[in-house]
Design brief:
alpha/beta, globular
Length: 243
């Protein structure tokens, strides 16, 4: 029996500093090896240069547009499994070593650090469950985003409270049927660069979190990311080192 094939959907609205965008793509090319990637952008990218393709959508940046980018990329992939990759996350090769054990569950990589682009503070706490760490079998992702787009268009707006960004959130009114989710941890972490244009803001002070009592046990705010190196006060240099 052959192993399931893997593919990557990379999506971007292009609203991040050029050094972030270029470094993320260069690192993704190194980390993915032979895994093909479909990049979905709002202007032509010319990336990937090999083992993949770019699709440019003539749409304005928005949450709904992001969902459409994800769906278009998933439909263009020919792999069994799809990794969701964002334009401001540095992915380690070990992230792509994971193979979902079940085809009916969404999986999220929890081994991720957030880095503040302004000052290089590096933050980790247990439970950073985000779409940028999502991997699952492609059919359930296509099903999810097809339904999610239809609901947003029907309602006329996106509500994070009612729907959430991540697949696996149970939604009221029966509008989006969904599957369960589970987590995994890659051998080495991914790095989520927080630059002010992210869809979700990362708070670097524990006092800003309602669940701070739960986070306290795992909370780490430092100046470096394990494996990746020193970030504090030198984000530009850090990105150059991984470009």
């Amino acid at each position: 029996m052959t192993d399931p094939s893997k593919g990557i959907v990379y999506y971007t609205h292009g609203q991040a500093a050029p050094d972030i965008l270029s470094t993320v793509r260069a690192q993704l090319d190194r980390a993915r090896g032979e895994i093909p990637v479909v990049s979905v952008s709002l202007v032509p990218l010319g990336w990937p240069a090999e083992n993949g393709r770019n699709i440019a959508l003539d749409l304005p940046p928005s949450i709904l547009t992001m969902f459409k980018q994800q769906l278009v990329g998933l439909q263009a992939l020919e792999s069994d499994i799809a990794f969701s990759c964002e334009h401001d996350v540095l992915y380690h090769a070990s992230h792509f070593a994971f193979t979902p054990p079940r085809p009916d569950i969404y999986y999220f990589n929890l081994n991720v650090w957030a880095v503040d682009y302004a000052d290089g503070k590096a933050l980790y706490y247990d439970g950073m469950k985000m779409t940028s760490g999502l991997v699952a079998y492609r059919p359930i992702l296509v099903e999810h985003y097809t339904k999610k787009i239809a609901w947003v268009e029907e309602v006329g707006t996106f509500s994070r409270r009612n729907m959430g960004f991540e697949p696996g959130k149970k939604v009221s009114k029966g509008r989006v049927g969904d599957y369960d989710w589970a987590t995994f941890r890659s051998e080495s972490p991914n790095v989520d660069i927080k630059h002010g244009q992210n869809i979700t803001r990362k708070r670097f002070a524990i006092e800003e979190y309602q669940s701070r009592r739960l986070l306290k046990a795992s909370w780490q705010l430092t100046d470096r990311v394990p494996v990746w190196g020193l970030t504090g006060g030198r984000v530009t240099e850090f990105l150059r080192e991984h470009a």
